[in-house]
Amino acid sequence: MTFFSRSPAPSPLLGQGDETDVDVSEALDPPPNAASTMYPKCAACQGLIQNIIVQALDKTWHPEHFRCTHCRIPIATQKFHVHAGSPYCVEDYASLFLNKCQGCRLPIKDVVVTALNQTWHPDHFVCISCGTKLLYKGFYEREGNAFCTACYEGKFCPKCFGCGKPITETAIKVHDRKWHEACFRCGRCRRPISGPTFRVCEADVVCVECSEKGREEGKNDTSSYFEEDEEED
């Protein structure tokens, strides 16, 4: 025969680290001749529980003895998390065990973005230059920082001497100038220079045909060859 109130079945724990509740029930007064062994024992102090019973983690507790493992505050009437079989209040569990956002340094309680070997809140993973959110977008990494495409190309990619736009792939380099392959054209006839040989005349690169015509006109061209330059991502 038991002398404790019939309490509802405790809510099943949601798994280690999940937030859960405790089951609190109240013992009925036993008959005068009831043995003390009829009372459950508190998992913390091993004393008999004669009044309110806290049921959690498959054990019974005095309300004042069911505490957060870290800060030691009573959590009998609060939600809590379980880690390695021990209860923690919501605040301590977050600060001790959750990933921290590299952007705001606070615990990440929901979606975690992992990038650059670090973790972020989705709204805090942004371009370091302009602040554009980078989730679900391509980005460039430089010296441990994330850049959106526009900022990276504008800051770090060489500009094409022909069109002025950033060069993100293979470049053709002549002395200190670079071109997109499609922009590398004869400075006189404006046709693409597709052969391996071209010539330099003053500030222009010229195709062989135009150079031959220039020689007939007394212009001094210097023969040159393609020098391809692979741009790094």
UniProtKB/TrEMBL annotation:
One of its GO terms (molecular function) is metal ion binding. It holds the Pfam family LIM. GO terms for cellular component: anchoring junction; nucleus; Z disc. It is found in: Cell junction; Cytoplasm. Residues 40-98, 99-158, 159-217 form the LIM zinc-binding domain. The keyword RNA-binding does not apply. SUPFAM superfamilies: Glucocorticoid receptor-like (DNA-binding domain) (SSF57716). Keywords: Cell junction, Cytoplasm, LIM domain, Metal-binding, Repeat, Zinc. InterPro entries: Znf_LIM. The keyword Zinc applies. Residues 1-30, 213-233 are annotated as: Disordered. Transmembrane segments: none annotated. This is Leupaxin-like. It comes from Diaphorina citri (Asian citrus psyllid).
